[in-house]
Design goal:
The complex is a heterodimer. Chain A contains 7 helices and 10 strands. By secondary structure, chain A is an alpha/beta fold. By secondary structure, chain B is α+β, with helices and mostly antiparallel strands. Classes of the chains: A alpha/beta, B alpha+beta. The complex binds adenosine-5'-triphosphate and magnesium ion. The site of magnesium ion has 2 residues of chain A, from helix 1.
Chain lengths: 231, 397
């Protein structure tokens, strides 16, 4: 078997939140390798540290202890601006509550991440991306004029704008009905088949079961990590 | 950074009216500065052109107080005039009375500005004043009821009367009928173009003033003399003769000096108002930017998650504040130009001269300065916004 490329690695990551006297140990030594082309879910009960883990994977936050490598580069000592650069170029975020900018149209939302990149990177075929997620007819609609499922597809399109390697989705269907939820999952699966590394964070077993790699987290520790064949 | 501009403009469009009210301070401040600078520039120009008129030979002696139709206590007497005439460097002297009278032309009633001159040497005086007779002739004697009208009564009469006034036209002033004997050519000075002129004896009759009081003494000096020195001499003589300092001797340099002094006082007041307004405007912008940063915390988090650097967030908010200032500056500049024009027009109606001159540099300065005020006011809120932690901001509802 060909050795797969590691796009992201966590080494013994701890995250401790200090709230005055109280310390909350959200992550207690997580080690994890994400390979190029992974279609992974991170599943666990509420409060188990899923969002915390996603923030660290997504370079939104740094761990209290342990190391984070993105593309074999340690980012522990990165400045805020360098981290922003990583988020802009290598990672696409999809949030539970979509997090679109309400005043911008679908197309403008998708273009937005490009504005923060250097000029030479501004080769976004944003319209094509929106078409590929099935919103070719909705380019100039504001988020309020779109259904939840459509908004989430705009958010996915936005996460693709800078052509990142990794898509991180935190409860992407948490705010959707089961039909839209299935569509979103299908969309992510299609993207994975086109080569994107996808990580879905969820507490929904039905969603986790549809991913190829299933990671379970409990009390800030990985308790299970298995690869399965999906139909 | 340029790419962020459309996004910034979208953000500005959704601002509430209340937040726009904060720019009133900037508008007022820039308005004050631009109008002041336009008027100052106009004054400078008119002073320069006054000096440029080669062989300026006219000195005006006028009361310090407002005189009207020769009825003032502080007017001049014939003895004053003779006193000035005795000065060696003086070529000749033209005493005058200025007034506003009611006129009836073809049953149209109106009020006009009128000057009555002593008619000796008047033709030479007109020459000095660039007042050329276009049609007809100058007064032939001081007793017949002859009148000369400004160019506008002949050429631009539509704004004044239904019908043109020309040589031979009859006008009723007070209870007498006057015959137009001359029309002046365009002097380039609207106040002269809209004036009428009679002899000093006749104006006393029109305004019903019996005493031989004089409003103004125009002194024409001989050629190639130092006009300022002659002015000094007149001042000394009159001082001794009249024994009171209730008049002004206006030479070109003294007039310029007086106008500058007035302008300096006005400048101090205006700059004071402008500074306070700009300060208020700046604080207003800062306030509304702080509100906006709080309201848009979540959005800042989203932008950071999709790759916005601290400097990008800073730029977005600074540009917003700068453009708010710029809009205030734009309105203020327009208002300032409008005010300068109004002041000039009103001064003109009151018979004073206050030219304005609109310098594009002043406009650019107004715009640039207001942009700067916006940016400075927006800096602290924008800096605060740029320092927001992405996760914490995202958690915001
Ligand atoms: N900023 C914070 N300050 C203090 N404690 C925090 C903070 N963020 C998370 N925690 C705590 O860390 C633990 C893990 O939180 P996290 O949000 O990662 O859980 P989660 O698995 O995403 O839960 P959920 O499924 O409810 O979203 C929880 O006990 C939570 O209270
Ligand atoms: Mg969570």
């Amino acid at each position: 078997m060909v050795k797969k490329k590691i796009v992201l690695e966590l080494k013994d990551v701890h995250k401790i939140y200090k709230m005055g006297e109280v310390e909350v140990k959200a992550l207690r030594g997580v080690s994890l390798k994400i390979y190029k082309g992974d279609f992974a879910s991170i599943m666990g009960p509420s409060g188990s540290g899923k969002s915390t883990l996603m923030h660290i994977i997504g370079a939104l936050d740094l761990p209290t202890n342990g190391e984070v490598y993105i593309d074999k580069t340690n980012i522990n000592n990165y400045t805020e601006n360098q981290l922003a650069g990583i988020r802009g170029k290598k990672i696409g975020f999809v949030f539970q509550e979509f997090n679109l900018i309400q005043t911008l149209t679908a197309l403008e939302n998708v273009r937005l991440p490009m504005l923060f990149q250097e000029v030479e990177d501004r080769k976004c075929h944003c319209e094509d991306i929106l078409k590929s997620v099935g919103l070719g007819e909705r380019l100039d609609h504001k988020p309020t004029e779109l259904s939840g499922g459509q908004q989430q597809r705009v958010a996915i399109a936005r996460s693709l704008a800078n052509n990142p390697d990794i898509i991180l989705a935190d409860e992407p269907s948490g705010a959707l009905d089961s039909k839209s939820s299935k569509e979103i999952l299908k969309l992510l699966y299609t993207l994975n088949k086109k080569g994107k590394t996808i990580i879905i964070i969820t507490h929904d077993k039905n969603i986790a079961e549809k991913t190829k790699r299933q990671i379970k987290i409990k009390d800030g520790l990985i308790v299970e990590d298995k690869n399965v064949k999906i139909k | 950074m340029i790419g962020l501009v459309p996004f910034v403009i979208k953000n500005l469009k959704r601002r509430k009216l209340r937040s726009w009210l904060t720019i009133i301070g900037v508008i007022v401040g820039v308005l004050a500065i631009v109008s002041l600078m336009s008027l100052a520039q106009g004054l400078q120009d008119s002073i320069t052109s006054e000096f440029d008129r080669m062989g300026a030979r006219k000195i005006t002696v006028a009361s310090k107080f407002l005189t009207f139709g020769g009825a003032s206590e502080s007017g001049f007497t014939n003895e004053d005039v003779q006193e000035i005439e005795r000065i060696f460097d003086v070529d000749f002297v033209v005493p005058a009375i200025e007034s506003v009278v009611r006129i009836n032309y073809n049953n149209e009633l109106s009020f006009i500005n009128i000057t009555g001159y002593k008619i000796d040497n008047l033709e030479e005086f007109f020459e000095q004043e660039d007042m050329t007779i276009l049609r007809g002739a100058c007064f032939s004697n001081s007793r017949s009821r002859d009148i000369i009208v400004g160019y506008d009564y002949y050429n631009d009469y539509e704004n004044l009367f239904k019908r043109r006034i020309d040589v031979g036209t009859r006008l009723r002033l007070g209870t007498q009928t006057y015959n137009v004997v001359g029309v002046l050519d365009d002097t380039g000075d609207q106040r002269k173009n809209r004036r009428m002129f009679v002899s000093i004896e006749n104006i006393r009759e029109i305004t019903n003033v019996k005493e031989e009081i004089i409003d103004k003494i125009y002194v024409i000096i001989k050629e190639n003399r130092d006009i300022e020195a002659v002015g000094e001499r007149i001042d000394e003589r009159l001082d001794r003769f009249r024994g009171r300092d209730d008049y002004d001797v206006n030479t070109p340099a003294r007039t310029a000096e007086q106008q500058r002094e007035i302008l300096n006082i006005v400048s101090i007041v205006v700059i004071g108002i402008a500074s306070i307004s700009l300060l208020v405007g700046g604080v207003g912008i800062m306030n509304s930017m702080y509100t906006s940063v709080v309201e848009r915390k979540k959005e800042i988090g989203i932008l950071k998650a999709i790759g916005a650097k601290n400097t990008d967030i800073l730029t977005i908010f600074l540009l917003e504040a700068g453009i708010i200032g710029l809009i205030g500056g734009f309105l203020g500049t327009l208002g300032g130009i409008g005010l300068a024009i109004s002041v000039s027009v009103i001064a003109d109606l009151l018979g004073a001269e206050f030219a304005y001159s609109i310098n594009p540099l002043v406009c650019f300065f107004g715009l640039g300065f207001s942009f700067l005020v916006g940016i400075i006011s927006g800096f602290l809120p924008a800096y605060q916004a740029s320092k927001h932690e992405p996760i914490e901001s995202l958690r915001e509802e």
